[in-house]
Design goal:
Shape: elongated
Structural class: mainly alpha
Strand content: under 5%
Helix content: 55-70%
Distance between the termini: 58 Å
Largest sheet: none
Number of domains: 2
Radius of gyration: 21 Å
Length: about 150
């Protein structure tokens, strides 16, 4: 039992070392997202605290800004979850392997999308499959653009 644990720990350390630059990129992106989320929320609160909306256009503009800020926060939160999961996979030594088929995810894909958890082939299959995907399921009644 100890031998397996040592082997897993060594594998985890090797994986952590080989993905050090991607790990740093993930951490940097995570911090950037957190700063932008907190900055946007603070700006939103400051804008509406002392505001007196005498003009309908001002109210509409503020509502639009708040809606856009909320949309960004939702997307950023989803990205934060993906980043946290990728960092966890690095620590566990499973980073860089497709969660569907287990094959290695190419370095070029990981550099472009460091929180990728599927290889290109599995990602394509996911996107081709009928029914809601994690990205499209949040869009109610999305039109069928192919018809």
């Amino acid at each position: 039992m100890k031998t397996m644990k040592k082997a897993r720990t060594k594998k985890s350390r090797r994986a952590s070392t080989s993905y050090a630059s991607l790990r740093r990129a993930l951490i940097s992106r995570r911090q950037d997202l957190l700063d932008r989320i907190h900055g946007g929320l603070a700006d939103s609160r400051c804008d509406t605290l002392g505001a007196r909306f005498d003009d309908v256009a001002d109210r509409a503009s503020d509502a639009l800004y708040n809606e856009l800020a909320q949309g960004f926060a939702e997307i950023a939160t989803a990205d934060l979850r993906k980043i946290d999961m990728a960092l966890e996979r690095i620590e566990m030594g499973t980073y860089g392997h497709c969660e569907e088929c287990g094959c290695r995810i190419p370095q070029a894909r990981l550099r472009m999308l460091p929180f990728a958890d599927l290889c290109v082939a599995c990602q394509r299959e996911l996107e081709k499959s009928p029914g809601p995907t994690p990205r499209s399921s949040s869009v109610p009644n999305s039109p069928d653009w192919d018809n």
